């Protein structure tokens, strides 16, 4: 722009030093317009530049081309060291309160909430300005003394806090509890207490991977603000998409029930103040057309403040003099394209090797969301410089390359760097830069796997490389598959490679031990099976021998009984018959079979007379011819039963049974028929004389004399 103004003044001098009054007659513009066109404060319009050139005899085509070149040069970003009124993607800090505009009412609300509640929560979408509101709005207001009053019109005076601490949970939020527990209330202290501002509270759910540590931190935070005599007041800022995660811890959810303040989109009036206010502080002017366009494009976008701040920063870098114009805004890429334009400009100035490194660095600065939006991940600079590894020379080259990439990204305000940590300037970079979004989506599952590997390796290192924290089983298999795919091994740090190598070695050792154990178990099972087989065989042999012994014993007993049966066949045929049956039942030996057949062939046998010790002839047998019954003489020990023939028949016989005091149909011992003792034992035939009874079966037929009963006695 300055060069173009100089060329216009040179053209006027070459034309003979025309005065501006003379030039107005040919150009048609006033003296002030023509003089400002050559002043160099801002680039004149194309019409004014062509009129100026025509009044001095210049070529319209040449000066039109030259104006367009100047316009392009004028819209290029300029870093002249002048402080910018806008911070871009970076958050506002307490020292930036002079250029923080548009949140007065919300600041009053959060101040009131902090002084009336021990725990307050600021909830809003990513990019709604929570961090800036706490740092550049709440903290400066809290630091004002009672005499100074509050800046807001509706704000009430409150006690100035004794101290204000700003912190973020990080990987291990439980470390914040020690400073909180060490603070004790002092009854003599009349200040507003100790204020603890916890920014990026979603780190408790995204970076902290241990449920127990998370619960311990939440319990400790609640205890710190509710402890009797505590003067601690805590303010947290959490993303809206993680606010539901706070309900997982019931006491914490109860504590936030009436202490939550939602941060929504800026209304048009506040948004206009956020755009124009910083420019006015620095003596700049924002074109009304630009302000109106910003109001239209950011209407209803709760997360558009980082985009607004960045596009205004890039517009300021392309300003013409002290004016922020629509042309500069469009050259910056607009609200939704400014971040991408800036990032692509950085990439365009890097080599292909450095571009690969940019991808690795940025992906390590992101935690892929699992059911939620992706979040930024603060990383130590040492971790970024260790990616890839190698020898000492390669490590030095790697460190230099990483430093170059980080310096370029930080200069473009895409990342922030402190002494040890590198972080994305804002999570809006993830969604607003298509190239970065494509890098994430092309291997999202691999990125999730890599983040888990990084966290596991960090835990392994923190536990002094305890073997119990190594990967095993399915998790190790997933990691190994991902590492071997697309040369991901080159993206690992030495710590991650050591962790993976130790995990593989530990699993190989465990597999070897398991294989040996399995082999020993197989040998043991085979030995036990052999012993069982032998024991079964010997047992079967023993059982077989026992059965053979029992059969031999039974056969011997059967032969013995058969022999006894044959010996008693004549003297005691009934017993002999029973013995033969028992012998055949015990064992079907030829001897038993022969004895059984021999006894069954003796058909003359009917029964055996038992139950008496003297001769049957003593006393005789009394016979009643009318009934066919007979009885032994003196004691009545032999009772006869009628034969099936009628009385008086030629075959006047009766069955005789032993016993005394018997009734007809009963055996002598009182048992029913069929028992061994007391059965009917013979069949007697009356003697021809009429008073005698013949009973066979005592070696020869015995003639038993019957006696007549006494007179009057029963027969």
CA radius of gyration is: 60 Å
Residue share in β-strands: 5-15%
CATH topology of the largest domain: Rossmann fold
Summarize the biggest pleated sheet: 5 strands, parallel
- Identify low-pLDDT runs: 149-155, 612-620, 632-685, 689-715
Strand arrangement within the widest β-sheet reads: 2-3-4-1-5
Helical element count? 26
Write down the oligomeric state. single chain
Distance separating the two termini: 170 Å
Report mean pLDDT, rounded to a whole number. Answer: 79
CATH class of the largest domain: Alpha Beta
Tally of domains: 6
CATH superfamily of the largest domain: P-loop containing nucleotide triphosphate hydrolases
| Main structural class | alpha/beta
Structural overview:
The protein is of the alpha/beta class and 715 residues long. The protein folds into six domains: 2-74, 434 Repressor (Amino-terminal Domain) (Orthogonal Bundle), CATH 1.10.260; 103-263, 3-Layer(aba) Sandwich (Rossmann fold); 268-335, Helicase, Ruva Protein, domain 3, CATH 1.10.8; 339-490, no CATH class; 491-605, no CATH class; 621-705, no CATH class. The protein contains 26 helices and 19 strands. The protein has a five-stranded parallel β-sheet, with helices on both faces. A five-stranded antiparallel β-sheet has the order 15-16-17-18-19, with no helix packed on it. The chain has a three-stranded antiparallel β-sheet with strand order 10-12-11. Strand 11 and strand 12 form a beta hairpin. Helix 14 packs across helix 15 (326-332). The longest helix is centred in the C-terminal third of the chain and has 74 residues, at 494-567. It is elongated and about 180 Å long. Residues 149-155, 612-620, 632-685 and 689-715 have low confidence and may be disordered.
């Amino acid at each position: 722009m300055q060069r173009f103004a100089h060329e216009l003044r040179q053209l006027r001098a070459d034309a003979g030093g025309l005065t501006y009054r003379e030039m107005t007659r040919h150009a048609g513009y006033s003296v002030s317009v023509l003089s400002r066109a050559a002043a160099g404060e801002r680039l004149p319009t194309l019409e004014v530049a062509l009129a100026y050139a025509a009044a001095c005899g210049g070529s319209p085509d040449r000066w039109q081309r030259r104006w367009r070149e100047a316009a392009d040069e004028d819209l290029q970003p300029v870093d002249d060291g002048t402080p910018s009124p806008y911070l871009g993607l970076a958050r506002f800090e307490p020292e930036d309160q002079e250029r923080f505009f548009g949140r007065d009412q919300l600041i009053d609300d959060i101040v009131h909430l902090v002084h009336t509640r021990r725990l307050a929560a600021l909830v809003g979408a990513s990019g709604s300005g929570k961090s800036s509101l706490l740092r550049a709005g709440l903290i400066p207001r809290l630091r004002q003394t009672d005499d100074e009053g509050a800046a807001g019109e509706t704000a009430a005076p409150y006690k100035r806090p004794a101290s204000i601490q700003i912190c973020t949970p990080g990987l291990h939020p439980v470390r914040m509890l020690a400073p909180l527990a060490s603070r004790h209330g002092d009854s003599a202290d009349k200040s507003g207490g100790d204020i603890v501002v916890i920014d990026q509270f979603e780190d408790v759910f995204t970076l902290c991977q241990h449920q127990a540590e998370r619960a311990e931190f939440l319990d400790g935070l609640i205890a710190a603000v509710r402890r009797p005599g505590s003067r601690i007041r805590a303010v947290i800022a959490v993303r809206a998409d993680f606010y539901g995660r706070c309900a997982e811890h019931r006491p914490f959810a109860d504590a936030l029930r009436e202490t939550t303040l939602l941060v929504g989109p800026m209304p048009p009036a506040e948004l206009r103040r956020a755009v124009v206010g910083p420019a006015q502080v620095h003596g700049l002017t924002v074109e009304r057309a630009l302000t109106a366009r910003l109001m239209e494009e950011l209407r209803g976008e709760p997360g558009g403040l980082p985009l607004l701040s960045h596009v205004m920063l890039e517009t300021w870098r392309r300003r013409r003099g002290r004016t922020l114009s629509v042309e500069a805004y469009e050259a910056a890429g607009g609200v939704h394209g400014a971040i991408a334009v800036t990032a692509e400009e950085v990439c365009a100035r890097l080599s292909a090797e450095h571009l690969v490194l940019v991808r690795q660095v940025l992906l390590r600065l992101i935690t892929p969301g699992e059911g939620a939006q992706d979040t930024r991940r603060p990383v130590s600079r040492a971790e970024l410089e260790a990616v890839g590894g190698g020898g000492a020379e390669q490590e030095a080259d790697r460190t230099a390359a990483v430093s170059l990439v980080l310096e370029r990204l930080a200069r473009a305000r895409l990342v922030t760097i402190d002494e040890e940590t590198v972080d994305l300037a804002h999570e809006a970079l993830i969604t607003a830069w298509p190239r970065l979004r494509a890098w994430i989506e092309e291997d999202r599952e691999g990125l999730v796997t890599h983040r888990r590997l990084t966290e596991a390796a960090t835990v392994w290192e923190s536990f002094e490389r305890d073997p119990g924290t190594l990967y095993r089983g399915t998790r190790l298999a997933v990691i190994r598959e991902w590492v071997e795919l697309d040369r991901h091994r080159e993206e690992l740090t030495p710590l991650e490679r050591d962790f993976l190598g130790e995990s593989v070695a530990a699993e190989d050792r465990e597999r070897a031990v398991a294989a040996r154990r399995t082999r020993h178990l197989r040998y043991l099972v085979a030995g036990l099976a052999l012993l069982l087989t032998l024991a079964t065989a010997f047992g079967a042999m023993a059982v077989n021998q026992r059965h053979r012994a029992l059969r031999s014993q039974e056969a011997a007993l059967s032969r013995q009984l058969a022999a006894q049966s044959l010996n008693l066949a004549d003297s005691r045929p009934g017993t002999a018959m029973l013995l033969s049956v028992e012998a055949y039942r015990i064992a079907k030996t030829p001897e038993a079979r022969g004895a059984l057949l021999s006894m069954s062939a003796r058909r003359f046998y009917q029964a055996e007379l038992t139950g008496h010790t003297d001769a049957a002839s003593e006393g005789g047998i009394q016979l009643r011819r009318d009934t066919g019954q007979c009885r032994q003489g003196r004691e009545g020990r032999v009772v006869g039963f009628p034969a099936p023939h009628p009385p008086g028949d030629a075959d006047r016989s009766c069955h005789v049974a032993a016993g005394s005091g018997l009734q007809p149909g009963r055996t002598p011992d009182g048992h029913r028929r069929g028992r061994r003792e007391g059965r009917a034992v013979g069949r007697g035939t009356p003697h021809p004389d009429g008073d005698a009874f013949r009973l066979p079966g005592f070696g020869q037929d015995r003639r038993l004399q019957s006696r007549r009963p006494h007179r009057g006695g029963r027969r």
